[in-house]
Amino acid sequence: MTKRQQQQNLSQSRDGGYTIIESLVAMIVVSVLMIAIAPVMAYSVATRVQARRMELATQAATAYINALRVGAIKPPTNSQPTIGFPARDTSVAPAVPPAPASTSPSSNLYCVNLDETPGCAGSKEFFVQGLWRNPANTTNDPTPTGYELTVRVYRADGFTGATMTTVQQSVANSALGNPQAPLVVMKTQIPPTTQGSASARQSLCSRLNPNGTINTSLCR
Predict the structure, then answer these.
(1) pLDDT digits (tens, 9 = 90+) for 154-208
(2) What is the C-alpha separation between 67 and 128, in angstroms, rounded?
(3) How far is CA 78 from the centre of its chain?
(4) Are the CB atoms for 134 and 148 separated by under 8 Å?
(5) How far, rounded to the nearest angstrom, does the alpha carbon of residue 21 sit from its chain's CA centroid?
(6) Which long-range contacts (CB under 8 A, 24 or more apart) does 95-102 make?
(7) SS3 117
(8) Do 146 and 191 touch, CB atoms closer than 8 A?
């Protein structure tokens, strides 16, 4: 009788040992699966954050363009640039206009603040860079003749002493993205003001065909 009880106790203890080993194996399997899935989940969250950031940057660029079209952002009144008004694009076409080097007023960057913190330095603020181009206009005020506008939207926290770039980043392969690269790049045409001497059609013709060598139906 005593031997049977010992055998039963021994059998139960062996079964308990197998249960502990199985639990350890299960914990190891779950840990391996979590390690494998964690990077995918983190990348998915980062992509969503970057997509949302690009959406806000697109809204900032659209608001900036509309402000220039209605004259809410005034052109410079002298040789000194106006904060927010686009700078002259002095690059040779079709060269890419340079990226901003700093956030000083002379860089013509326009701050878009989307949080309650004053200033423009956080991850929810953007700097909009505007560059205007019109070979027919040699003055500092392009509003009477109209101009081609290049817009780039940068993260405000990207201006940390590093060199800004001009290559737009992508949502698909950038995750949280490069803080020094523009989130959005746009090009559009800004028509002349009603006080200007040129019509919108004449302005567009002079910018597309500054030498008058191309005869198109638009410019006849």
Answers:
(1) 988 888 777 888 888 776 655 667 888 899 999 999 988 754 444 455 555 665 6
(2) 12
(3) 31
(4) yes
(5) 52
(6) 96/166, 97/131, 97/133, 97/150, 97/166, 98/166, 99/129, 99/152, 99/163, 99/164, 99/165, 99/166, 99/182, 100/127, 100/129, 100/152, 100/154, 100/159, 100/164, 101/163, 101/164, 102/159
(7) coil
(8) yes
% of the chain beyond a pLDDT of 70 = 71
**How far is 69 from 90, CA to CA, in rounded Å?**
22
Mapping DSSP to helix (H, G, I), strand (E, B) and coil, where does residue 46 land?
helix
Model confidence over 39-61: pLDDT tens digits? 778 778 878 888 888 899 999 99
CA distance linking residue 211 with residue 220, whole number of Å: 14
Sign of CA dihedral 103, 108, 112, 117: positive
- In terms of phi and psi (left: phi > 0; alpha: psi -120 to 50; beta: otherwise), the region of 71 is left
Strand partners, 133: 148
Parallel, antiparallel, or unpaired: how do β-strands 184-190 and 109-113 relate?
Answer: unpaired
- Beta strand segments in the chain, E: 87-88, 109-113, 125-133, 147-155, 184-190
pLDDT in tens, 2-51: 555 555 555 555 555 557 887 888 888 888 888 888 877 877 887 888 88
